[in-house]
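Same chain as my last thread, 169 residues:
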Amino acid sequence: MKSRCILIFLGSAVPRGDEVLQLGNLVLPNFTCEAKPFKRYVEIGRVAMVNYGKEYGRLVVIVDVVDQNRALVDAPDMVRGQMNFKRLVLTDIKIDIPRLPKKKSLIAAMEAADVKNKWENSSWGRKLIVQKRRAALTDFDRFKVMLAKIKRAGLIRRELSKLQKESAA
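reply #2:
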């Protein structure tokens, strides 16, 4: 499905090769853009992260869709229960499971799909791990991090000045 996109260019720069739409003194290039469909769908086996409540930050798997607002979710270390879609954020990870699997087969499918490793290696998962690590730092740990940053910046500045002196000479 193609949709029309109109971009306004300020100045005299107009892309070549495309149609140009003129409205009085205003020149508008006329582009066609590909409409991008969603990549993550609510489906059985979709791994989601809980973004609100006591289960915050936990990875869960959708095992059944109750209605348009709720899903039945399960994880190896939690009791199966209903959760509102507003409390879930869908991930790119999907595992192949039947509808309403037993806990043992769900755990086996998650291990076979290597969900935990995929999540920890994703940029989203790494960012959350760093956030948790930073939140757990003590005042003294934050002080040590500050000193390490100052030391690192000094080393970088010294090396950069050496390179600039060599290139100038």
